[in-house]
UniProtKB/TrEMBL annotation:
<dbReference type="InterPro" id="IPR023393">
    <property type="entry name" value="START-like_dom_sf"/>
</dbReference>
<dbReference type="InterPro" id="IPR013538">
    <property type="entry name" value="ASHA1/2-like_C"/>
</dbReference>
<feature type="domain" description="Activator of Hsp90 ATPase homologue 1/2-like C-terminal">
    <location>
        <begin position="12"/>
        <end position="142"/>
    </location>
</feature>
<protein>
    <submittedName>
        <fullName>Uncharacterized protein YndB with AHSA1/START domain</fullName>
    </submittedName>
</protein>
<dbReference type="Pfam" id="PF08327">
    <property type="entry name" value="AHSA1"/>
</dbReference>
<comment type="similarity">
    <text>Belongs to the AHA1 family.</text>
</comment>
Amino acid sequence: MTNVRIERSFRVSPERLFAAVTKQADLLKWWGPEGVHVPEHSLDLSGLGPWYSVMVNDAGERFKVSGHVTSYDPPCSVGFTWAWHDDADARGHESHVTFTIVETDDGAQLIVDHHELLDEESALNHRGGWQSTLNRLAAVLEENS
């Protein structure tokens, strides 16, 4: 199994960053890599329980991912399981994601830990996806600050 860690700093309070990464209204503004939108979802990480999202890219390809929020500690961290679905909607290998928020001198840092990915190829793909997704989060936070 392989793990990915990405750290990104934002010039917002830890409370604002935590809301952005857990509340549905905020999540829908940035969830998924650049170039996708989320037409179907139960995307809310602001409490324990199931979630899912369907991301659609510009070519019309659909990518479904689902999981359960397993830990919720505002404004410090939220953890959730993560599994992609295949074309028959069968859930694949399950990994685990944790968003940890740390206060900094000029705002807050988001640490994304994605654990138990199958292999290096999966880790590289997820790293790229998270980096692109965090670019979208940065843009949303900048326009709202």
